[in-house]
Amino acid sequence: MPSIHACLFDLDGVIVDTARYHYIAWREVANALGFDLTPAQNELLKGISRMESLDIILAIGGVELTDEEKVKLATGKNIRYLELCSEMTPADTLPGVRHFIDELKEKGVRIALGSASKNARVILQSIDMLSYFDSIVDGNRVTKGKPDPEVFQLGAADLEIAPENCVVFEDAVAGVQSAKAAGMYAVGVGEKSVLAEADTVIPGFENYTFAGLNNSLS
Ligand code: BG6
Ligand code: MG
Predict the structure, then answer these.
(1) Residue 1 falls within a domain, yes or no?
(2) Does residue 42 have its Cβ closer than 6 Å to ligand 1?
(3) How many Å lie between the centroid of ligand 2 and the Cα of residue 171?
(4) Is residue 59 domain-shared with residue 153, that is, in the same domain?
(5) Which of 38, 128, 160, 204 has the greatest count of CB atoms below 10 A from its CB?
(6) Catalytic residue flag (residue 158)
(7) Digitized pLDDT (tens) for each residue of the chain, 218 residues in all
(8) CA-CA distance, 154 to 182, in Å (whole number)?
(9) Residue 28, helix vs strand vs coil
(10) Among 50, 68, 85, where does a domain finish?
(11) For residue 47, how far is its CA from the centre of ligand 1 (angstroms)?
(12) For residue 25, what are the domain limits?
């Protein structure tokens, strides 16, 4: 593997534990429509845009709605999601990730965000990490969501780094597929059984170092 010049991070579930807030808010939508959303079903929504997530949820419940009704539900979900996020502070950053990014910056590695979320900047601001990123690619910039490689291709292009010198950190199956489709090294953050397509999987960033990352590449 060539040397690492850039690391691209997903946001929800990698930098901050917002994945559980997305789940709470979507589960309330499902419950209001008369069915439940299991943790396994929720896994299908990770990394997927807001409207696509709603379509998946409606298919699970066998519910058909008009476009207008869908927009209303998605807007309501987002209001609830942001309400759940509103209490977030820098203490909500996932353990070790800030320290790891600090180390990468010291080593001269460029940092990008690659997220499907349209709320990415608000979330980064609330955990005081907006200034950490040399490039931010969020749900407002992409035209094709994960597993399409666009989100990470745009980040690498912003940084002017070749894909083979990029490492992506992802907690979602669709995100790992996106990284691989972009020709990048994919580090899954979570469980091996779920993120089987990643090049390597870590449980989280606690005690994780640049040397540890380089070891897994060699
Ligand atoms: C991704 C999450 O990061 O962002 C998904 O994993 C979410 O669960 C998607 O649907 C879009 O987020 P938002 O904040 O634009 O609704
Ligand atoms: Mg994620």
Answers:
(1) no
(2) no
(3) 5
(4) no
(5) 204
(6) no
(7) 679 999 999 999 999 999 899 999 999 999 999 999 999 999 899 999 999 999 999 999 999 999 999 999 999 999 999 999 998 999 999 999 999 999 999 999 999 999 999 999 999 999 999 999 999 999 999 999 999 999 999 999 999 999 999 999 999 999 999 999 999 999 999 999 999 999 999 999 999 999 999 999 98
(8) 10
(9) helix
(10) 85
(11) 6
(12) 19-85
Separation of alpha carbons 174 and 143, rounded Å: 15
Pair (94, 196) in one structural domain = yes
Same domain, 130 and 106: yes
How much is the pTM?
A: 0.95
Q: Are both 154 and 72 inside the same structural domain?
A: no
CATH value at residue 33: 1.10.150.240
Q: How many domains in the chain?
A: 2
Q: Are residues 66 and 152 in the same domain?
A: no
List Cβ neighbours of 140 (8 Å cut-off, separation of 6 or more). Answer: 118
C-alpha 16 to ligand 2 mean position (Å): 9
Catalytic residue among 10, 158, 171, 199: 10
Is residue 47 within 8 A of residue 175, CB to CB? The reply is yes
The yes-or-no answer on residue 199 being catalytic is no
Which residue from 109, 82, 112, 83 is spatially nearest to 14, judged by alpha carbons? 112
Which of 56, 85, 114 is at the close of a domain?
85
d(CA 75, CA 77): 5
